[in-house]
């Protein structure tokens, strides 16, 4: 990152301490300006300043075989992202946006087994992670002939706060005052994660004046008829007792609104009461998702796969506990 003034590190620590959406950081934070580090709850964060990703020497900081998580949005293709791999100490790159070209779009729970030894991979997008697990299980059970994904998405920092010039269509209009129709790459990214649905999905998005939590509406034409109760019962079971229970959640409540899903750890939450299905092949599903927190959990899960590190889940079985106790 680039240094932005004398108080840069202090300001970044303050942004970590206070979050307008997710609230205050629960823990201690201290700053060492001389060493460019932030200590957060005992975890040391080394801040590295550079004008170019290829100019960073990670080994100078004792960092070896680093996985660089590129959250800048500046590059989405191999040519741009390979700049990170020129740096000493960097071994792989994980992009937090849909990757272009041959870059794999990985949705944890769906195709993380295909990570392999690729040096550059993508964690797709928040929307892709919300819809792909649901699309996968629906396709497995009922088949999907084709579908359209309409995303009602909170505004993001690439939009303007007030009307001003913007290189993208419509995004120049004030984000806090307008609903803005815009393109989304979620459908194409979903097809990369689910090749069996290639050519069957379309997508669009509407940015709305809320700061977080979005909603994906899936208009699907199934390959066999399904009733509302059948679809909902299946999705509820999947959320409770399947390999995708960390990705898919399910709720039935007439009272929930977007802020109720703030901080969710799941990639997406199916709103069962909103499901539309009349026993024909046409089904409409509504999937809530915290486009910050839920997606971040998915990115972290991919990082775990890339490093081979999986923290112990508690409670543990007696046999595992005994093995741990024996040291």
TrEMBL record:
Top-level taxon in the UniProt lineage: Bacteria
Domain Glyceraldehyde 3-phosphate dehydrogenase NAD(P) binding: 1-126
Membrane-crossing segments per the record: none
Alphabetized SUPFAM superfamilies for the sequence: Glyceraldehyde-3-phosphate dehydrogenase-like, C-terminal domain (SSF55347), NAD(P)-binding Rossmann-fold domains (SSF51735)
PROSITE patterns given in the database record: GAPDH
Keywords attached to this entry: Oxidoreductase
A Pfam family the protein falls into: Gp_dh_N
SMART domains per the UniProt record, alphabetical: Gp_dh_N
CDD domains: GAPDH_I_C
NCBIfam families registered for this protein in UniProt: PRK08289.1
Similarity comment: family membership: Belongs to the glyceraldehyde-3-phosphate dehydrogenase family.
Protein name (database record): Glyceraldehyde 3-phosphate dehydrogenase NAD(P) binding domain-containing protein
Organism from which the protein derives: Frondihabitans sucicola
